[in-house]
């Protein structure tokens, strides 16, 4: 019973477990164990290339076996690590012992003490965690974000010619086009993804205090700095930070979290805009047979997907804020506060993926109500006053702003007729009058880059 999502403390493993399951292989305890074993095994075979005077042939015969084992770690071995940890009270040491047991089973006892050779726990944690982070980002987070962006692009193209009454300070303003307003968020998100792509997935690998002390004293003729760069960079696909204490400084990791926080902030902004458009009846929402919009009011279809997204993005950002502020701070060469905090990296990403899935669902339910947009434009002819006074300025007409201000402030309702009457009494040429008569709330939408 306790294993049921109904009894989970966090909704990411409870109510929303179905939407977060793809992250479990990267951010769960089992996932962390597997990534630690992957790094330890990869390190063992990297050592085999540089340690002299050792016959590595028997170990190398089992390279495919050991690599396949750690990449497809059986549940029984995950459980074995946890069993060993009950004795060691040290999670990374338990991983080391589990690997040694596997080597015993393969008849590789002679190589056991090369497992975790010269390393401290953070050499494993500070490579396993960024590796899981990188692979989770590429496999789950970025594709989900891209799916949202692709929907926004498709909708912006479909609605590129739909005029929309803009609202600045909540008041009617110069008209725009719905597609362009959608594309504002596409451009913002793509800008942040571009920044994100420039940030390295950084790692620490250098022994107890970052100086390869144990490695250097055992094999002083080996270039351990070059070894670390090659192992972390080529074998793991990460960036080895050259100057560290016992732990990675986490500056790049913090930058990644801040970048995701900005992405989420943009999506909060978008969610609130769509929520407002729905409240203005600019959009209707498709519903499935049997769905209920409100428990009390049968007529309502609430914009719950955008509300869900906004709430989860807010929780994610609160956690990202703590992660990016806390992780780069450590007392002297190491304290343990980063250890427990790092275990929570998956939580803000779980809330973010819940939000992205909600946005995808909500966007696909939107149905444009053009009649509402047209009615709003038709009720706000005052917005063409800007266009008229600007052309009058061009023509050298005296005090055009003041003339339009008097019109818009003295009439309780500006209509197409009152605008036409105003134009007729102007002391300007017929050609300019005709130019002004062509301006309507529907076509006074300016220009912008091509959305195709």
Model description:
The protein has 452 residues and is mostly helical. It folds into 3 domains: 17-117, Fumarase C, Chain B, domain 1 (Orthogonal Bundle), CATH 1.10.275; 122-370, Fumarase C, Chain A, domain 2; 380-437, Ribonucleotide Reductase Protein R1, domain 1 (Orthogonal Bundle). 60% of the residues lie in helices and 5% in strands. It has 20 helices and 6 strands. It has helices at residues 17-20, 24-27, 29-47, 57-61, 63-71, 75-88, 91-105, 121-158, 178-197, 213-218, 224-235, 251-279, 304-326, 337-342, 346-365, 370-378, 385-394, 400-410, 416-424, 430-437; strands at 163-168, 171-177, 202-203, 239-240, 283-285, 366-368. The strands form 3 sheets. Strands 1-2 form a two-stranded antiparallel ribbon. The longest helix has 38 residues, at 121-158. It is elongated, with a radius of gyration of 31 Å. The mean pLDDT is 94.
Helix tally equals 20
What is the fourth-level CATH superfamily of the largest domain? Fumarase/aspartase (Central domain)
Beta-strand percentage range = 5-15%
- The radius of gyration computed from the alpha-carbon positions, rounded to a whole number of angstroms, is 31 Å
The portion of residues assigned to helices is 55-70%
Specify the CATH class of the largest domain: Mainly Alpha
Structurally, the number of domains stands at 3
What is the structural class?
A: mainly alpha
SSE run? HHHHHHHHEEHEHHEHEHHHEHHHHH
Which sequence of strands runs across the widest sheet?
1-2
Q: How many individual β-strands?
A: 6
Gap from first CA to last CA: 53 Å
Largest sheet: 2 strands, antiparallel
Determine the CATH topology of the largest domain.
Fumarase C, Chain A, domain 2
The shape, in one word, is elongated
Give the CATH architecture of the largest domain.
Answer: Up-down Bundle
Name the poorly predicted regions: none
Average pLDDT value? 94
């Amino acid at each position: 019973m306790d294993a049921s999502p109904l009894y989970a403390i966090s909704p990411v493993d409870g109510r929303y477990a179905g939407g977060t399951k793809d992250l479990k292989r990267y951010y769960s305890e089992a996932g962390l164990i597997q990534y630690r074993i992957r790094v330890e095994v990869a390190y063992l075979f990297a050592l085999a290339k540089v340690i002299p005077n050792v016959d590595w042939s028997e170990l190398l015969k089992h390279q495919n076996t050991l690599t396949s084992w750690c990449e497809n770690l059986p549940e029984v071995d995950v459980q074995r690590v946890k069993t060993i940890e009950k004795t060691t009270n040290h999670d990374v040491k338990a991983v080391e012992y589990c690997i040694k047991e596997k080597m015993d089973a393969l008849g590789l006892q002679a190589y056991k003490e090369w497992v975790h050779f010269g390393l401290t726990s953070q050499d494993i944690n500070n490579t396993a965690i960024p590796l899981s982070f990188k692979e989770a980002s590429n496999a789950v987070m970025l594709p989900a974000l891209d799916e949202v962006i692709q929907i926004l692009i498709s909708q912006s193209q479909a609605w590129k010619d739909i005029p929309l009454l803009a609202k600045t300070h909540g008041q009617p303003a110069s008209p725009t086009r719905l597609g362009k307003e959608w594309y504002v968020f596409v451009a913002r998100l793509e800008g942040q993804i571009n920044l994100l792509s420039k940030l390295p997935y950084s790692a620490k690998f250098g022994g107890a205090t970052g100086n390869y002390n144990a490695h250097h004293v055992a094999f002083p003729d080996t270039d351990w700095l070059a070894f670390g760069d090659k192992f972390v960079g080529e074998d793991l696909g990460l960036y080895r930070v050259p100057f560290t204490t016992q732990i990675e400084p986490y500056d790049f990791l913090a930058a990644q979290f801040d970048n995701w926080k900005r992405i989420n902030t943009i999506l909060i902004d978008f969610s609130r805009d769509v929520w407002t458009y729905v409240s203005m009846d600019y959009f209707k929402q498709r519903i499935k047979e049997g769905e209920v919009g409100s428990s009390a009011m049968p007529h309502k279809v609430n914009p719950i997907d955008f509300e869900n997204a906004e709430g989860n993005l807010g929780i994610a950002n609160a956690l990202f804020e703590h992660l990016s502020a806390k992780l780069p701070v450590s007392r002297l060469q190491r304290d343990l506060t980063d250890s427990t905090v790092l275990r929570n990296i998956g939580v803000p990403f779980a809330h973010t993926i819940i939000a992205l899935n909600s946005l995808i669902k909500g966007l696909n339910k939107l149905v444009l109500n053009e009649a509402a947009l047209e009615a709003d434009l038709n009720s706000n002819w005052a917005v063409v006053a800007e266009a008229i006074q600007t052309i009058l300025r061009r023509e050298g007409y005296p005090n055009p702003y003041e003339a339009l201000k008097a019109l818009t402030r003295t009439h309780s309702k500006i209509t197409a007729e009152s605008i036409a009457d105003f134009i007729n009494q102007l002391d300007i040429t017929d050609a300019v009058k005709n130019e002004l008569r062509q301006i309507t709330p529907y076509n006074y939408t300016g220009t912008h880059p091509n959305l195709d």
